[in-house]
Sequence to fold (509 residues):
Amino acid sequence: MEIKFFAKSDLGRVRTNNEDSFLAEPQLGLFLVADGMGGHNSGEVASKMACEVIAGNLKTALERSKEDDGTRVMLGENNPGVSEPANILLSAVRLANRVIFEASRDYAKDHGMGTTLVALLVRDRSYVIAWVGDSRIYLVRHGQIQQLTTDHSLVQEQLSKGLISNEQAETSEFKNVLTRALGTAGDVEVDIAETPAFEDDYLILCSDGLTRMLPDQLILETVKRCADPESICVELVELANKAGGRDNVTALVVCNKSENFWKKFLRSVAKIG
Amino acid sequence: MPPKLLLKFHAAVIKEIVIEKTPVTIGRKPDNDIVIDNMAVSGHHSKINLQGSSYIIEDLQSTNGTFLNEKKIINSVLKHNDQINIGQHSLVFINPEAQPQPEAPRQEAQPIADSDSTVVISPQKNAESAKFPERKEMLGSLRVIEGKSDQQEYQLTSLLTYIGKGESAAIKIKGLFAPDIAALISKRPAGFLITAVKDGYPRLNNTPLSGQVELKDSDLIEIGGMKFLFQLKDKT
Fold:
């Protein structure tokens, strides 16, 4: 199976600064989106740091794991319910948390800075996803869209505990309150999950700047209509801006398609054009 | 106040260790007081002793050496804020008694009135939510109560469980007109959700299912000639 991907990050229509960051390392199969927060441009510092630390640490750790000596440095507890590469990703995200937390204490201007994070590791037959905060990963498969992550936000907590209804959640004034983020505390609980991969899967990593402006069904329609990752990203960002663009918007689309599909697709597009 | 050591990996502080008794041994083997599991660290790498009122760092003939403020040492007195480097880790020696420490500015995340900026709250501060019990992980399963299947009960341990005739379905149904994928059960921290992939085809408690709905304990799911009972239990 072949991975095709594209990412687009946009300022939006209201903000003066883009504090979202993304990273794609196709050789590692690693894709990240982070939405930063903090005074001045600290949000940008935090989200960028998260991407760089995770990618760097993961790369080293995965290379090391191929060697025979068997020792692995793990930050925090090993999760026996997921694979070794998943635990390597888990450790990398926790390390990013510590690094951002330390940096926020070292520099006065960066006090209180933090970031959300969504990570996708594409393996031969499965996907590993890890997340902290309210950025999301969606899976489009069998003509359906499924949110794989669960927001670490006050509104989601209230919804899950049955304290508020879906309608109240939509109009809540606390939509921007997170219960977890990277960099705001020494330790953080990172959610991690693994799921089998299938052909024709689309995975969409995005910041809440996209999901606050567009309903899930519209994201699904866009994927179905545009088919290739670049067009999907461009279209999603444009739709988010048309709907108001109230925050930075970032979309990273990964597509798992067989070689044959792309050749057929390109041939059919060439005929129409 | 006793002195302490901040164990760091590059810029990140991993642990804060209070020096309650000496000597303090440092190395890769588990019999050390401070265990650093890294290939650059020797089994017994160094030791901190107390001589009179001074703390001394001593290298125990380690392979890669012990460095104090980036200078390789065998034996040296530790001063407040000294940095001991061992491989990629470092230990910062904090001894506030020796020197008055300016209070590090503490900043708590203050919710800002402006609803556009993001704030993070800690679980303790979230008093309203704390009144309700912490969300426990729930175990879900589907018990076959009608129809032939290769299992009597399916544990819903995966993030996504597909029900259908096709290859990607973990729970198989039969039938000439059965779709490849009829329904999807997704596992979330708060519970389980069922989505009708073929709209109206699955029935939930005798009503055709459309869209996505949260499953409750003892819900009855009917798909293709099979009937399943959904059961929800606490992890304990």
